[in-house]
Amino acid sequence: MTLDFTVVADVACGVGESPVYDEATRQLYFVDIPGCLVYAADLPTGQRRSWRFESAVGSLGLAASGRLVVALRDRVILFDPRTGERQELCTVEADRPETRLNDGRVGPDGAFWVGTMDDRPQKEPIASLYRVDPSGRVERKVEGLTVSNGLAWTIDGVTLFHSDSRGPWIDRWRFDPRTGAISDRTRIATLDEATGRPDGGSCDAEGFYWSAGVSAGRLNRFSAEGRLVESFAVPVPYPTMPCFGGPDYRTLYLTSLRGAHPPEVLDRAPRSGSLLAAAAPVAGFPAWRFRDA
To answer: For the chain, what percent of residues have pLDDT higher than 90?
Structure first.
């Protein structure tokens, strides 16, 4: 089986990430981390908007109020794309210039889960995974990470997947959607450059975990036990994160990066940094929303 990807937004992101589909507006939000940008692609019309922020934008999620919860370098804010209003929710590791916020996602508990990463070239295990509740309270959940990534939950809300891009590994946790408690950590996969270091991830409605193999130009589908059941080649060398969207959640969206790669690499892959889409072989499901309302 192959996936036939087309370009939805040719935006040449330095590092495109964090795609999420808003069924209320039929827009696909995503970020360009080094570009300090949040994008909104209006899928029915093909129109696109963007907003610039004062620092790197690591990730975002939908909020119940219609706002977005956005991870900047060391702060989490609420942003209203209708008015442009920005409200600080909390700071995270603001006293540590060597780290920044990275992959984040709203969980079935209505909180924003976001990890940090070592932003230095040497990449050491000094990062953590945090839970940010609607009051702005920050709770550290996991320590000893290098590049926290790949947050995704199963449709029933009781299983969390989480990866470290420099591990490189994927873990599975038991998750309590009422309290946000995590337990029973299990290492389900240890990967390599050829299979694809795990970047962003997403779950389908059947309970399988899709992981962007950023080092291999592949999109990998794992069982809950960590078995690689399918691996799809994608038309960009550095895919970063998948998500499901569209009215029936049968479209697979994929962000990608350009980075600081040599011109000869980018010349062979002119769609690098674009937002791509393909018909999905399975359905996804709606994203959870941050309980700010």
So the answer is: 96
Annotated ligand binding at 100? The verdict is yes
The residue to which tokens 């050491």 are assigned: 124
Residue 220 annotated as part of some ligand binding site: no
How far apart are alpha carbons 97 and 29 in whole angstroms?
27
Contact 240, 200 (CB under 8 A): yes
Task: Answer yes or no: are the C-beta atoms of 126 and 142 closer than 8 Å.
Answer: no
Coil vs helix vs strand at 101: strand
The pLDDT of residue 264: 80
pLDDT digits (tens, 9 = 90+) for 101-154: 999 999 999 999 999 999 999 999 999 999 999 999 999 999 999 999 999 999
**CA nearest neighbour of 151 among 259, 78, 241:** 241
pLDDT at 91 over 90: yes
**CATH superfamily of domain region 5-279:** TolB, C-terminal domain (2.120.10.30)
Q: What is the dihedral of CA 160, 74, 16, 281, to 10 degrees?
A: 10
Catalytic residues: 199
Neighbours of 153 (CB within 10 A): 26
Name the one residue in this structure whose structure tokens are 């976001």. Answer: 114
Measured between alpha carbons, how far is 32 from 229 in angstroms, rounded to an integer? Answer: 30
> Model's pTM, two decimal places?
0.97
Query: Residue 216 corresponds to which amino acid?
Result: A
Neighbours of 94 (CB within 10 A): 11
149 is in an annotated binding site: yes
- Location of structure tokens 């409200």: 87
Q: What pLDDT, on the 0 to 100 scale, is given for residue 293? A: 79
Instruction: Kindly list the domain boundaries of the chain, sorted by start residue.
Output: 5-279
Q: Is 267 annotated as a binding residue?
A: no
Residue 97 tokens read as 């210039």
